[in-house]
Amino acid sequence: MLRAVGFQDADFKKPVVGVASTWSMLTPCNMHIDELARRASSGVDEAGGKSIIFGTITVADGIAMGTPGMRYSLVSREVIADSIETVLGAEGFDGLVAIGGCDKNMPGCLIAMARLNRPSVFVYGGTILPGIHPETKKECDIVTVFEAVGANAAGALDEKGLKTIEACSIPGEGSCGGMYTANTMASAIEALGMSLPDSSAQLAVGKEKKEDCVRAGAAVVNLLQKGIKPRDIMTRKAFENAITVVIALGGSTNAVMHLMAMAHAAKVKLSLGDFTRIGKRVPVLGDLKPSGKYTMSHLVRIGGLQPLMRMLLDAGLLHGDVMTVTGKTLAQNLVGVKPYSADQDVIRPLDNPIKADSHLRILYGNLAPEGAVAKITGKEGLSFSGKAIVFEGEEAALKAILQGKVKAGHVIVIRNEGPRGGPGMREMLAPTSAIMGKGLGKDVALITDGRFSGGSHGFVVGHITPESFDGGPIALIKNGDPITIDAKKNAITLDLSAKELKARAKGWKRKTNPATGVLAKYRALAVSASLGAYTDADDF
Asked: Which residue range is the domain that position 265 belongs to?
């Protein structure tokens, strides 16, 4: 059977390396990965291994966003992990190169690597170039489109203007251009030591990305020779490095649940408290979208992630003694890395941060006894108090925002969108973008047991646990209830007495969205968002 797919006599004596390709024409994030997989395959073969390319799935979050289809997005992370594990486990491959381009591809690949614990390297498919508006010449991206929908609803942008933005914002291959979830996770994985230096900050269309793939193929063969496995690299210190870099870049809230799910697979204890602890000493330095002004392509232009990591290492904020897929330590990889030029302002110096501590705030209180996750850059303010306006699901909330029913002072509550309630824990990019487009970004807050796209910004709190499906306090909120969010005290409070909440709980009845197939399986197996919303038979 192997002869039929190209093995020669000599190949049977070589280590076999699987190359997991997430290629798909569903999305620009993954449309070029078939070529990258072939490059990685050649790198394996040239280094003395024998490669076999195989496929796994992806879904297009940007297309599914705001529809019932988005319920499959987080679930796809588990399907990707399961499918890669299945192929490698069944075929007995010695090592793995996995290439991902969209949000869930990356943690899905890393979860599989950690479970199997065979020498592995992850390759990021690379970031997209920004689109250029034909009239204003301003840069546009996917979030520009979503926010333009809100501006159109507010009467600030006509149909022609909306069509112009929609048509120019996605110019070709590569992942969404800001420090959204894809670029956040690519950067986190490089900081974790599971991809080669510079892999996270490369253009999808550049020759550097093709060379990165070839080097990754060779790197796996080197790891096989040295006996270095993923769990030798994915240690607690390495996860702390990943958290540090995510904070410094102002990265996505999704990194919280993805890193916890990856750590669980690697048998490393990681909790919400680690994000708070590390966040007290790590500043936000990247002036990157969605809350900043630059895209990942600008970070590529000034030298990528490595100078930032060198800066953080020199300041004692990174562990330099951790192993990486180069076969060297993080500190060894950073020797000789030059600092950013003095005339750039994409990455701030440590003595002039955008925010002195983390933008990722883990909030607790009677509304979220098991925790919630907020992304507060400070531009929204650090506290918000308002009256609840409650919606059962994303669609109802989006409709109300676009119709002008949401007013200044409202705290929008979107519930029954958690891992089990959704099921699938949809991202709320459409509502948050509509809020921004309507000009309400500083006047309303939004809380949910769902989650947010890395492109969301504003006063938003997600991952509220326990979720509504499990009878958490978010299930008990009524229109007009006073809610306070305090990012200084890391608190989220439903300003009602314990007696009132207890009385409401007695009358609570679960509301369920129907689910079959993979969604039903996910509902049955998913753990709380406060743990990572993963599925794992070890827990049952």
From this structure: 12-127+172-334
Cβ partners under 8 Å of residue 336, min gap 6 = none
Are residues 202 and 326 located together in one domain of the fold?
yes
Read off the pLDDT of each residue in 61-71 and give the average, rounded to a whole number: 93
- Provide φ and ψ at 343, rounded to 5°: -95, 5
Global pTM reads: 0.96
Phi and psi, residue 460, nearest 5° = -125, 140
Residue 456 has pLDDT above 90, yes or no: no
The chain-wide mean pLDDT, for the chain, equals: 96
Q: Are residues 120 and 240 in the same domain?
A: yes
Alpha-carbon distances, residue 280 vs 26, 27, 275, 418, 474 (angstroms): 40, 37, 9, 28, 28
Q: Of the listed 41, 73, 453, 530, which one is catalytic?
A: 453
Task: Examine the domain organization and report whether 101 and 218 are in the same domain.
Answer: yes
Q: Which pLDDT tens digit goes with each residue over 204-218?
A: 998 999 999 999 999
**Does residue 453 carry a catalytic annotation?**
yes
Which residues have a Cβ under 8 Å from the Cβ of 507 and sit 6 or more positions away? Answer: none
- For residue 340, give the DSSP letter: P
Query: Residue 113: which CATH number?
Result: 3.40.50.2300
